[in-house]
């Protein structure tokens, strides 16, 4: 379209585009047909597509969106090519899932693997960096599980789909608080652990001789604070 053909008063073009007005009704019909075909494809892909998505499932969703957008809105494109592509994606996704069930290596490559982010109250800094998870993102997940300090944590797993699983330690030991610094009043209600300090960066629990001017043996930082219990 040339710039001289563009006029702000051309409401027919703004509302309906270059296609005939009758095509608006056709778009409705196309959309309804694609909608039900899309629902059928999603149903055939299985219940996992209705849950939190893995990397491959997210790729499938984006691909499906790209496929169904064109035939719904472009008048010179038919529905059958889109249906064929939807079926192709269906068989591809089901085939990859079948391979993932048969071979563990294929599953890890396609869907990722679980990562341990915290172990026995200590953050696994290299794993946090690998998964690009910040301290505050992890602490937010812990607070959602009613965890107030790392001494209550036995394991934190980041699942392949990006969700977090928290296993609590019984009985808990002193650890680094996960309460936000802005809530100083609540932090002061946490009783300190006598003669015990923890690394403020990774939560490593140390004795007075460990932290007396020394670096943390787990992460190499020198940010010692009083442990809470």
Entry keywords:
229 residues, alpha+beta, CRO Repressor, 2 domains, 4-stranded antiparallel sheet, 3-stranded antiparallel sheet, 9 helices, 7 strands, transmembrane, cell membrane, DUF421
Give a written overview of the molecule.
The structure is a single chain. The chain is 46% helix and 14% strand. The protein has 229 residues and is α+β, with helices and mostly antiparallel strands. The chain has nine helices and seven strands. A hairpin with a 5-residue loop joins strand 5 and strand 6 (205-206). The protein folds into two domains: 3-110, no CATH class; 115-228, bsu07140 like domains (CRO Repressor). The N and C termini lie far apart (70 Å). Residues 102-170 form the YetF C-terminal domain. Belongs to the UPF0702 family.
Q: How are the secondary structure elements laid out?
A:
Elements: H1 11-16, H2 23-45, H3 55-73, H4 80-102, H5 104-111, E1 115-119, E2 122-123, H6 125-131, H7 135-144, E3 153-158, E4 164-168, H8 184-188, E5 192-199, E6 205-206, H9 208-211, E7 224-228
Antiparallel strand pairs: 1-2, 1-3, 3-4, 5-6, 5-7
């Amino acid at each position: 379209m040339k710039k001289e053909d563009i006029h702000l008063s051309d409401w027919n073009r703004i509302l309906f585009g270059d296609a005939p007005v009758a095509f608006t009704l056709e778009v409705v019909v196309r959309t309804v047909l694609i909608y039900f075909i899309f629902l059928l494809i999603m149903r055939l892909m299985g219940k996992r597509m209705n849950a939190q998505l893995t990397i491959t499932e997210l790729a499938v969703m984006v691909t499906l969106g790209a496929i169904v957008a064109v035939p719904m809105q472009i008048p010179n494109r038919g529905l059958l090519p889109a249906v064929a592509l939807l079926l192709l994606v269906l068989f591809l996704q089901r085939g990859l899932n079948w391979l993932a069930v048969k071979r563990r290596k294929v599953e890890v490559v396609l869907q990722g693997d679980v990562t341990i982010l915290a172990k026995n109250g200590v953050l696994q800094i290299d794993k946090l960096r690998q998964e690009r998870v910040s301290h505050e993102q992890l602490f937010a997940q812990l607070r959602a599980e009613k965890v107030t300090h790392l001494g209550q944590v036995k394991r934190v797993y980041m699942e392949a789909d990006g969700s977090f699983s928290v296993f609590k330690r019984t009985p808990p030991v002193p650890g680094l608080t996960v309460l936000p610094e802005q809530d100083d009043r609540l932090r002061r209600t946490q009783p300190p652990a006598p003669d015990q300090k923890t690394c403020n960066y990774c939560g490593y629990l140390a004795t007075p001789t460990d932290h007396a001017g020394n670096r943390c043996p787990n992460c190499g930082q020198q940010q010692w604070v009083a442990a809470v219990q």
